[in-house]
Specification:
The structure holds two protein chains of two kinds. Chain A is α/β, with parallel strands linked by helices. Chain A folds into two domains: 6-94 and 138-228, Rossmann fold (3-Layer(aba) Sandwich), CATH 3.40.50.300; 262-496, P-loop containing nucleotide triphosphate hydrolases (Rossmann fold, 3-Layer(aba) Sandwich), CATH 3.40.50.300. Chain A contains 17 helices and 22 strands. Chain A has a six-stranded mixed β-sheet, with helices on both faces. In chain A, helix 12 (352-364) packs across helix 13 (372-386). Chain A is globular, with a radius of gyration of 25 Å. Chain B has one domain (8-319): ABC transporter involved in vitamin B12 uptake, BtuC (Orthogonal Bundle), CATH 1.10.3470. Chain B has a two-stranded antiparallel sheet with strand order 1-4. Chain B has a two-stranded antiparallel ribbon with strand order 2-3. In chain B, a hairpin with a 5-residue loop joins strand 2 (157-159) and strand 3. In chain B, helix 2 (37-46) crosses helix 13 (269-289) and helix 4 packs antiparallel against helix 5. Residues 322-326 of chain B have low confidence and may be disordered. Classes of the chains: A alpha/beta, B mainly alpha.
Amino acid sequence: MQTAKVELIGISKNFPGVVALDNVDIAFQPGEVHALLGENGAGKSTLIKIMTGALSRDAGAVLINGKPVELDSPAAAQAVGIGAVYQEVNLIPSLSVAANLTLERQPRRFGFISWRKAAEDARVALKRLDVSIDVERPLGSYSLAIQHLVAIARALREDTQVLVLDEPTASLDAREVERLFAILRDLKARGLAIVFITHFLDQVYQIADRITVLRNGRRVGAGPTSALPQVELVSLMLGHELQAVEERRPPAEAKAEGEPVLSVKELGAKRVMAPFDLELRAGDVLGLAGLLGSGRTETAKLVFGASAADSGAIRVDGKPVSIRSPRQAIRLGIGFCPEDRKREGLMLELTVRENIILALQTKRGWLRLLSAAEQEKIASDMIRALGIATPDADKPVGQLSGGNQQKVILARWLVSNPRVLILDEPTRGIDVGAHAEIVALIRRLCAEGMALLVASSELDEIVAFSTRVAVLRDRRKVAEISGAKIERDDIVQAIAAP
Amino acid sequence: MGEEDMNERYMPLAATIVVFLAIYAFGAAAYNNFLSTLVFGDLLTDNAFVIIAAIGATFVILSGGIDLSVGSMIGFVSVAMAALDAQGWHPLLSALLLVSFGAVFGGAMGALIDACDIQPFILTLAAMFLLRGLCFVITLDSLPINHPFVAAFSDWRIPLPGDGRLSASALLMLAALAAGIVLAHFTRFGANVYAIGGDRNSARLMGAPIRRTMIQVYGLGGFYGALAGVAYAFYTGSGYPLAAVGVELDAIAAVVLGGTLLTGGVGYVAGTLFGGLIQGTIQTLITFDGRLTSWWTKIVIGALLFFFITAQRSIMRSTALMRHPA
């Protein structure tokens, strides 16, 4: 057994209202590609930001060759040999390739930068990855694949011990991925530890020696790749956290009959989601299951008109309708609770009351304003009905816990009395108790005859509330399971099937 | 290295120089005496203080920010110069004091902008009112600067071939420009300014010192603003509380005409010289014409600015300088 080059021990990190990382241990061995896997919000990005000095940790320690180190800035992490290529932001497209590669380490003569020498340094750094391009041109003028390689070249220094790559293949085509993997194998042979974050499972089996799976900020599985077959891996990623809700099915096929409230035919958008069909009847809960990147959110947004479809037809109550914007969807009685409630759902500075009446007011139009007394009554009714824990209706939503924020969004749609409610990850980042309450609420709404479309990365949750399940893989609807056949294992099989 | 196509980063600068030459050629063709070292020398002298201020503004805009306090800084420095002159200070000594004040004042703005995450627009707007108000605390009227050094400064000149001359103001401006070019393109500070303006978050992750650079950028903006104030005081031989109202906007226009992107990260300090000269040349042309009021300068500059920003936008689109990895 070799000494671990970099060990993270007991790392915890809290953001307001969310536990991002909870006591995570992980060790990166030299000469190994270590895949870090998990759904959105699992804590992968937070973990690598802590390990590369971009974020501070609340608890835990980072050891390098057994010695604790302080990583309080990206520069400090680089100094101890940890280099990173981040997913969204990495380099500066307006600067030349040479300037990007040499920022803060430009060669100087008499205190002034020697750009000739800098260009030479840049060429040498790229040479290590077998890239030969004009380093004087702006980075943004090159393809994304080249930009990624430049970012890797920057992260790789003579003394780099650990290279962290966050979704490096997301924007690459198959040939470019092969080239990147060849480079990674070469670096691995030179003894580097490589941390590889991706949502492409086939790539994990191609390149990774070891896997760690995170879920809701906790490490839920770890081991050599050979010991983790794909089905087990999918199962780990999709979680087992619904002990609080008893395994009771909604009254199966009790109400879900009659004309579909919402029917979708061949709806799709190029590069976003392959055309798919969906039908929702009153009393239906259609679960959308699939891995990160399979198209769950995309499906929800297409139906709601939040992203533009380029094919397909939608009918509401059998009548053809056109949904090109959320506004039209809302007027047709469709509601949508987005995945990222802080960025897309709630106005955090507005009060609970203001957030709750927002959709109702939109539906009524701004000419028929709700009076203060009406607003007050609606808000307090909802606070009572959903058990929102807030001292009063005039508290800013930003100060509530995650679970209560989610209930406020639900309340917003419930007061406008929608026929169809679309929920994207309704239980993301909320605690176990609130989790069970939200699931119970979904069942209740279903029993009252609402039609729901619920995307979730938690299989147990989908199994607990769905009357039917649509399985998505690689932005395509691959199966629909209904009735008594809704079992966790069936869904996992459908997701993992080659 | 023997490439066919030009590096796209030079395109805005090249466009600026072409526009300047075109306007100048138009003047030379239309008016007899236009193409002379006299007109050119005066162009440099008359626009020296605006260009000096614009050089500082170039750094601020390259970093992705904006500084609206420049005009007030010029006014304040000119008034303070006159007030200190009345107290018997040597103009060089008061210039030294006020330029240091400008740098510290600007640095404080930079520190506040970064530490409190304030929009540069609003903070420098506050500074603009503050400094303009201070002018009137010192004096309500125009004050002369009587020290013989000031007269000597404005009389001193290097004769140019023909009947032109290079004044001390013009030389000061050219020196400030040279210093600006070196700072922007040959120091780590300059590289960090471009990086922060290009993508602040990436720059932070790449290890660029954000706080320090922001303080330095606005400090430099304040320094150049105060230096422009000194040039203005020497040029007019007086201090006036309403001096240089709106010059911050002339400076910003010079920067943008000079090919620097308002969003930051792209541009050249040398471009700002040409941006300033374009404005000055249009003014001179309108003076030569004699039939139009000087307000037509503003109209033409407005039209040019509009043309420039739309043209820049399309250059940026086509070369994908703004594109970012997904």
